[in-house]
Design brief:
Blueprint lengths: L16 H20 L1 E4 L35 E4 H4 L3 H12 L4 H11 L4 H18 L1 H6 L2 H7 L3 H6 L3 E6 L5 E6 L10 H18 L7 E6 L10 H14 L4 E7 L5 H9 L4 H4 L2 E4 L2 H4 L38 H25 L10 H24 L29
Parallel strand pairs: 4-5, 5-6, 6-7
Antiparallel strand pairs: 1-2, 3-4
Length: 417
């Protein structure tokens, strides 16, 4: 299938039969390209559009009928691993690393939705994202602790400490809210590579804060006190590229708040870079009370004085000595990784059977088995995580002895009303 999907569908557990068919085709194509090094994906025939209405009179009515418009025929998509610069082994490894605690289907569906259900384009987009992750060594951001990242990327921790951005609470849709205090940023204050690693760190950390069935975050660019010295076109381009190409369908809402007159010249440049889908999610707000339409007042920091009720002050929680000691326990890590890899292989084997079934309903018994394995993967990831991933500030306890991310992967926000 291609084109726009029915509203409210396209997610794990709420797929139409056509969407399930596309998902099966996605996994089948991904398997074939790993086995053969290349795959050609032929799009499903598009449904013929309705005939155009015909005017009455000599040119229409009983005496003639409008010829139906020809359906749009999309060309096949051929994908070759050597052209992308990725191997089958790297695909398997990256897929395992990217899944985290998610249902594997949720990952595939994000790329399918981003490419309007064109399976070939979705697979190609996924593989290009995997190649980027390998080139950028994204796993490095997850394995290294904050202190190690600060050594490798100077002033990394400084960005976290100053509150240039912070994540706090959820909006009315359950999306984690990322606040960006733009006036605190100057492009010359730190190396551009540090900012890129910080962006990737935010993306990878943010994924742990998103709780199913929610799959997206909300961004609030607070432009209070904004001046041209705060503008960083390179960083904006990198951020846009990340959301559009490497973390698709992970951005729910963007609020540009309190933009001064000087920003509108900047906006004309940025607007031209945006995919129409991303651009459609942007809303400009000027009064703090407008934020309450998106975020409940009791979740909104009271720094937005006449609207927020949450007496929250951002404070960076620094690393705790010994917090990553389990990463040195190679024996336990090996056992847990073995169990994880076994689950991955079970899911892969089950998927090979599932893609060949003619039943595209959600009650397919093979699908039920896949769902059960996905739940096991979710549970096991959080047992494995302390041995393979450094802690972040959301996993550290604050002065009240409370952390945002719990050991089982659930998220608990605390509001001070």
């Amino acid at each position: 299938m291609s084109g726009n999907a029915p509203e409210g569908t396209g997610y794990v557990g709420i797929l139409t039969p056509d969407q399930t068919k596309a998902l099966k085709k996605f996994w089948a194509a991904l398997e074939e390209v790993q086995e053969n090094g290349t795959v050609t994906v032929v799009p499903e025939p598009a449904a013929a559009p309705e005939p155009a209405p015909v005017a009455s009179g000599w040119g229409g009515g009983w005496f003639s009928a409008a010829a139906p418009a020809a359906p749009v025929v999309e060309p096949p998509v051929t994908i070759t691993l050597s052209e992308i610069g990725i191997t089958a082994v790297e695909i398997k490894t990256t897929l395992s690393n990217v899944i985290l605690g998610d249902n594997p289907d949720a990952l595939a569906l994000r790329f399918l939705r981003a490419r309007k259900w064109n399976v070939g384009n979705g697979v190609l987009m996924l593989l290009n994202a995997f190649k980027w992750r390998l080139t950028e060594d994204v796993e490095n951001v997850k394995v290294l602790g904050d202190d190690e990242l600060d050594i490798k990327y100077p002033k990394f921790k400084n960005q976290l400490e100053m509150g240039k951005f912070y994540v706090h609470g959820t909006d009315r849709k359950g999306q984690p809210v990322v606040y960006l205090n733009v006036h605190l940023h100057k492009s010359t204050d730190q190396d551009p590579k540090t900012l890129e690693r910080l962006t990737i760190y935010l993306m990878e950390t943010g994924r742990l804060l998103i709780q199913p069935p929610v799959e997206t975050v909300a961004l609030i660019f607070d432009l209070s006190q904004f001046g041209l010295a705060n503008m960083d076109y390179g960083l904006v381009q990198f951020l846009v590229k990340c959301f559009e190409a490497y973390y698709p369908e992970s951005l729910g809402t963007i609020l540009v708040h309190n933009a001064p007159l000087v920003f509108w010249g900047v906006w004309k440049v940025i607007e031209g870079w945006l995919d129409p889908v991303v651009a459609s999610k942007i809303k400009f707000t000027y009064k703090n009370t407008e934020l309450v339409e998106l975020i409940p007042a009791e979740h909104l920091p009271d720094s937005f004085q006449d609207a927020g009720l949450d007496r929250y002050n951002y404070e960076y929680l620094p690393p705790v000595p010994g917090e990553n000691d389990l990463m040195q326990d190679e024996a336990t890590k090996e056992v847990l990784l073995g169990e994880w890899n076994h689950l991955i292989k079970r899911h892969e084997a089950n998927t090979k059977v599932w893609v060949k079934t003619e039943d595209h309903s959600l009650t397919n018994p093979v699908q039920a088995e896949r769902d059960a394995i996905a739940k096991e993967l979710h549970s096991h990831y959080y047992k494995l995580q302390p041995y393979i991933r450094a802690k972040n500030q959301f996993q550290r306890k604050n002065s009240a002895g409370v952390s945002v991310i719990q050991p089982d992967g659930s998220v608990k926000w605390t509001y001070n009303n």
